[in-house]
Amino acid sequence: MQLKDEVDVLRESNDKLKECEIQLDTYKKRLEEYNDLKKHIKILEERSADYVQQIVQFEEDAKKSATLKGQVELFKNKVYYYINYTIFILRTSVCKCNKKHFLAADSRPTCTT
After folding, report:
1. Are 110 and 101 in contact (CB under 8 A)?
2. Each residue's pLDDT tens digit, 63-74
């Protein structure tokens, strides 16, 4: 009888050991998954930091673009002004030449401008 009791106790201990081994394997898997998740989180944090840096760069570029666009508009307006002014001067000169030509006694143009 005593031997049977001892075998029962050993079986019970063996069963508990198997349960503990199964639980230990489960914890090992969870620990591996946790470590994998930590690595993945670190990668995502690095990507996020890169994206934030890109956003900051895009915002700076957008500000520069707005400034440059204003400068381009200003220069464009100046060019239009100078083109129109040049056209005005040319037309005025042509009109003066034509007027002098028609008022001159001979038929040769006298405009030297």
Report:
1. yes
2. 999 889 989 999
3-state secondary structure 24-93: HHHHHHHHHHHHHHHHHHHHHHHHHHHHHHHHHHHHHHHHHHHHHHHHHHHHHHHHHHHHHHHHHHHHHH
Mapping DSSP to helix (H, G, I), strand (E, B) and coil, where does residue 105 land?
coil
Residue 111 CB neighbours (<10 A): 13
> What is the spatial distance between Cα 64 and Cα 1, in angstroms, rounded to a whole number?
93
Between 41 and 109, residue with greater pLDDT: 41
For the stretch 28-62, pLDDT in tens is: 999 999 999 999 999 999 999 999 999 999 999 99
Find, among 48, 46, 67, the residue nearest to 56 by Cα. Answer: 48
Residues 6+ apart with CB under 8 A from 93: 111, 113
